[in-house]
């Protein structure tokens, strides 16, 4: 059975849904009441898109509610894992935020936790009973909508391992490596570099896990054009788009993402694939 805490996100439509009521107390605390009681031997999967600590808290109380009605095997599907980018200490005084989230979930002794296209190997290593879904099916569907002979662009060193595994699965796609420099104190990006002399007007697809403000992709788009690239496309598993998409639309012919993040809708050149279609 499935408990979809976000009623606009149903990645397993074939499974029977558990009905519930929820509300928020005047002090700001989320609350839930399970209306359908599964058999104690049944496995229940909770799905939740987490865009705030309140969403995470709602997930935690839902887990507790299921345990209190006797459900022993609880699975959780969190497509975008919170704080996945805060997976190392860059400057003194920071929190290792991802470990805060993983510690809480590990203490609940869940049957499994599934995440989509994690930012790095750190989150799966910290989570007990973690399953990961890679971006291969997502990118296959993206490529079906694009011209033939497109080049795959790795935006930085952190993406190289994943993109070469992807290219191996897809076959017959060349990978172009790129790099950048980030000031860890300010977050400012500079020194974008495309490791190719001439792209000969060939179309390019930048592939990454997350687009937040978009600075990485805007900087790369400029350098790719300087290297004689053709049309530019962007595919990110998790489209946060915290600064909007107006500037990105000026550089990219089309942008692809999934519905892992709330409030990311389809627009004239942003196409959102449902996770239910790529599981």
UniProtKB/TrEMBL annotation:
Name the record gives this protein: Ribose-phosphate diphosphokinase
UniProt xrefs under PANTHER family: RIBOSE-PHOSPHATE DIPHOSPHOKINASE FAMILY MEMBER, RIBOSE-PHOSPHATE PYROPHOSPHOKINASE 1, CHLOROPLASTIC
Domain Phosphoribosyltransferase: 139-258
Keyword Acetylation assigned: no
Listed EC numbers: 2.7.6.1
One BP term from GO: 5-phosphoribose 1-diphosphate biosynthetic process
Assigned protein family: Belongs to the ribose-phosphate pyrophosphokinase family.
GO molecular function: kinase activity; magnesium ion binding; ribose phosphate diphosphokinase activity
One Pfam family this sequence matches: Pribosyltran_N
Keywords in alphabetical order: Kinase, Nucleotide biosynthesis, Transferase
Annotated Gene Ontology cellular component terms: cytoplasm; ribose phosphate diphosphokinase complex
Domain Ribose-phosphate pyrophosphokinase N-terminal: 20-107
Database matches in NCBIfam families: ribP_PPkin
Record SMART domains: Pribosyltran_N
Record keyword Kinase present: yes
Domain of life the protein comes from: Bacteria
């Amino acid at each position: 059975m499935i408990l979809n805490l976000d009623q606009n996100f149903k990645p397993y439509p074939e499974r029977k849904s558990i009905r519930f009521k929820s509300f928020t107390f005047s002090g700001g605390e989320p609350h839930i009441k399970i209306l359908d009681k599964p058999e104690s031997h049944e496995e229940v999967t909770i799905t939740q898109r987490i865009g705030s600590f309140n969403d995470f808290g709602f997930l935690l109380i839902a887990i507790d509610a299921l345990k209190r009605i006797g459900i022993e095997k609880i699975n959780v599907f969190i497509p975008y894992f919170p704080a996945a980018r805060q997976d190392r200490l860059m400057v003194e005084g920071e929190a290792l935020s991802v470990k805060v989230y993983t510690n809480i979930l590990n203490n609940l002794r869940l049957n499994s936790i599934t995440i989509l296209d994690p930012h790095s190997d750190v989150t799966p290593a910290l989570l007990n009973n973690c399953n990961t879904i890679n971006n291969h099916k997502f990118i296959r569907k993206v490529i079906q909508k694009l011209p033939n002979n497109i080049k795959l662009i790795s935006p930085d060193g952190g993406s190289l391992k994943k993109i070469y595994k992807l290219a191996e699965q897809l076959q017959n796609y060349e990978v172009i490596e790129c790099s950048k420099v980030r000031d860890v104190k300010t977050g400012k990006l500079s020194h974008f570099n495309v490791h190719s002399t001439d792209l000969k007007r060939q179309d390019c697809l930048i592939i990454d896990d997350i687009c937040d403000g978009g600075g990485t992709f805007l900087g790369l788009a400029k350098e790719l054009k300087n290297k004689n690239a053709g049309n530019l496309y962007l595919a990110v598993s998790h489209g946060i788009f915290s600064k909007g998409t107006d500037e990105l639309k000026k550089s990219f012919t089309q942008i692809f993402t999934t519905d892992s993040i709330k409030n990311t809708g389809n627009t004239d050149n942003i196409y959102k694939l449902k996770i239910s279609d790529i599981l």
